[in-house]
Amino acid sequence: xAELFIEGVEVVKSHVEDLIDSHPDxxxxxxxxxxxxxxxxxxxxxxxxxxxxxxxxACFEQTQTLLIYTAxxxxxxxxxxxxxxLKKDAKPWLAYWICxxxxxxxxxxxxxxxxxxxYEFVWQLVFVIFLCHxxxxxxxxxHDRVTRPLLYPALDLRAAPTPLARGGGGGGGxxxx
Length: 177
What we know:
Layout: H1 2-22, H2 29-39, H3 43-85, H4 91-109, H5 120-132, H6 138-154
């Protein structure tokens, strides 16, 4: 069993060495030698560490996006469904969905701006929770002060409804019956 493992490691090692040798523009030999002299690590170990770090960063970014979507979708979907099922006013949740969709659209259109902010993941998660938590009425606040004044005139909606915050809704409503 150990021999099979060692054989597999040797195969991977030869493939990585071939990759390094065939792409000197990506893996400059002088740079790899300098790293080797500083760290004592062979070139193959340096390349594998760099690949592992880049793969980890990619996975972490995807995990963050998944958490943002989870926080912004699961509870609000449940609460919206409950409001509709109980035939209660769903306007606060409609305001939430407008704000959340605009946020996610902006986030996808300006991908280079958001990651440059310190603690960007924490800020995004706090913002999504602010939007959907019933006690903050964040969606109503954003809808009444930002979305409504900008969106309704652009769509030429003359009979714009009254602001949600005055109507006692926004960003939440009752999720539990």
